[in-house]
Amino acid sequence: MERVLQKMRPSTASIQALILALVVAGAASQVTGQAGTGQTVIQKATEQFENNPLKTTVLGQGLFMFSGDGGDVTAIVDNGSTLLIDSGMDTRVTELSDAIFKAAMRPVTSLVNTHWHFDHTGGNVFFGSAGVTIIAQENVKKRLSSVQSVPFVGLRDGHYPQEALPTVTYSSSMTLHQGPQQLILVNYGPAHTDGDTVVYVSAANVAVVGDIFSNHFYPIIDLASGGSIDGLIHSLDEILARTDEQTKIVPGHGPVATRADLEEYRDMLVQVRQRIMDLIAAGKTIDEAVAAAPTKQFDAKWGSGYVPPNVFTKMVFSSLTYGGSASR
Ligand SMILES: [Zn+2]
């Protein structure tokens, strides 16, 4: 059971309410996503996504990345059309659409969602209403079709209107073509959520990995949507096995990264997981685990994003105990 403070973002009034869960009862009260300033993780992130300047990065011939307006958005352009990966924040979709047209000069005809979160699907209504085909892993459609709650970070969202929902879905893998590029969409099982898609753009040697990796912040592990620390590490191992030193990694947030960045991130997750496992084995409670500062060594590099070290520690702890993989 949870008590929530309802707060409608004016811009989303036409879609659905984003309700910020500030107080969560029961076991989950220990893992409420306070970012340290009285704000939830989602409040802090939303503030950034609504105010950061929109930046266009050229990834290669006919390949662009747009960042700042929520999750990173990738555009792949052929002679007559543009395929998008993710759609950013609903509040900034007109600005995004203008930037895409300026860079690509071709209309958007398809959109792949890497997962269901609002900062990656916020533009779905805009593009879906214009007849763009929306493609995603099948669990994204399920989650966007119903109300979702992520108490860890203070997110409540959905359901999305019909035109924002994926019309093409897949289970574990799917191949698309866009001009000279072959796109292989893969889901490696639950990781950040239960509907994550990694897109390998093969001719260009680009891997778009969504929120499995943010460059360089501690990740949100969305346990309420089936995510887990073990699944996250598993997906990273699969991505590392399929990429090379030249691969450009497009993260869910932040600048383009290399495979070495992804490897460092994976090693950080493995070490934090082990330290928290040791604390669990020693009988520590979640608060005692936070007090033991198991992420301390990594905080300078990874802890300055909207997921602070204490929230990250709680998510990993929960993923390994009652909220996650160890209890399944
Ligand atoms: Zn996400």
What does this structure look like?
There is one protein chain. This protein has 328 residues and is an alpha/beta fold. It is 31% helix and 24% strand. It contains ten helices and 16 strands. The strands form four sheets. A seven-stranded mixed sheet has the order 3-4-5-6-7-8-11. A five-stranded mixed sheet has the order 12-13-14-15-16, with helices on one face. Strands 1-2 form a two-stranded antiparallel sheet. Helix 6 packs antiparallel against helix 7. The radius of gyration is 19 Å and the shape is globular. The N terminus and C terminus are likely disordered. The chain binds zinc ion (ZN). The site of zinc ion (ZN) has 6 residues, from loops.
SSE layout:
Elements: E1 2-5, E2 20-24, H1 41-51, E3 55-60, E4 63-67, E5 73-77, E6 82-85, H2 93-104, E7 108-112, H3 118-121, H4 124-129, E8 133-137, H5 138-144, E9 148-150, E10 155-157, E11 168-170, E12 173-178, E13 181-186, E14 198-201, E15 206-214, H6 229-242, E16 248-253, H7 259-281, H8 286-291, H9 296-302, H10 309-320
Parallel strand pairs: 6-7, 7-8, 8-11, 15-16
Antiparallel strand pairs: 1-2, 3-4, 4-5, 5-6, 9-10, 12-13, 13-14, 14-15
Helix pairs in contact: 6-7, 7-10
Bound molecules: zinc ion.
